[in-house]
Amino acid sequence: MSKNRSVTMLRYHETGSDSVSDQLALEEPLEIRVDGHPVSVVMRTPGDDEELAAGFLISEGIIDRPGAFRKIEVLPDENRVLVFLEDDLEIDFTRLTRHLFTGSSCGLCGKATLDAIFTHSSPVERPIEISAEILCAAPPLLRSSQDRFDQTGGLHAAGLFSKTGQMLVSREDIGRHNAVDKIIGHAYLHQIDLTKTFLLVSGRVSFEIMQKALAARISVVAAISAPSSLAVEFARESGQTLIAFLRPPTFNCYTGSL
To answer: Which residue segments constitute the domains of the chain, with CATH numbers given?
Structure first.
């Protein structure tokens, strides 16, 4: 399946207009079902749907331990992913705080109530230590992996890095929260210890990004762009380190320290 869509458009300029072809990032729905229960429809960029479903369930607080997934089946022609959990796992579906539909632009837009946006993940005891040099080396590595952004200009990216600065995985998606969910899902499915990693996002960092990171036990989050006020407040209360405006050689550390 192509992950871009080619369209014809009119490009206007000083001497008139030309009909040209352009590449657009795909945006399509994905229904997530858990043991036969429909739990959400997310708008996403197709690809890595297995990781997206796993990460979504982890960051929503439905799954909180490794080895919970017995099977994940992706049905690309139906835009559906079927998740099957281990038989001994009891799920409280009332903890799923989203409405059935969640848009790509903002994960919080699907939350049922304002109170429901706060999960019950415990604060981190101590964020991992990362040097300024390693931190500043991360943005170019993430940018070099953004092939589909180069083609469309319409995708967010998230990257997971080791304490030594190795980029373990990167994902792109039309929704910034989806890109993070794909990272989290990949880590769980490949048994990566997230407590020893840091997360970098290509745009701004919102409350929900910090919340997802905490649910996955990621203690350090960095962003190329700005943080929101609630993201900073949440990071301070959760014991996470939050770095934004990471534009080497400078950056701002809003909570925690290096």
So the answer is: 28-117 (3.10.20.10), 132-255 (3.40.140.10)
Question: Is 253 marked active-site?
Answer: no
pLDDT tens for residues 82-128?
Answer: 999 998 887 776 665 444 445 555 555 545 444 544 556 788 988 99
Q: Is the pLDDT of residue 2 over 50?
A: yes
Mean pLDDT of 164-179: 94
DSSP letters spanning 136-174: HHHHHHHHHT-HHHHHHS--EEEEEEETTS-EEEEEEES
Inter-residue contact 150 to 170 (CB < 8 Å): no
Contact yes or no for 28/46 (Cβ under 8 A): yes
Q: What does DSSP say about strands 37-44 and 28-34: parallel, antiparallel, or unpaired?
A: antiparallel
Place of tokens 């083609």: 151
Three-state DSSP at 20 gives: strand
Looking at 106, 109, 136, 253, which residue is catalytic?
Answer: 106
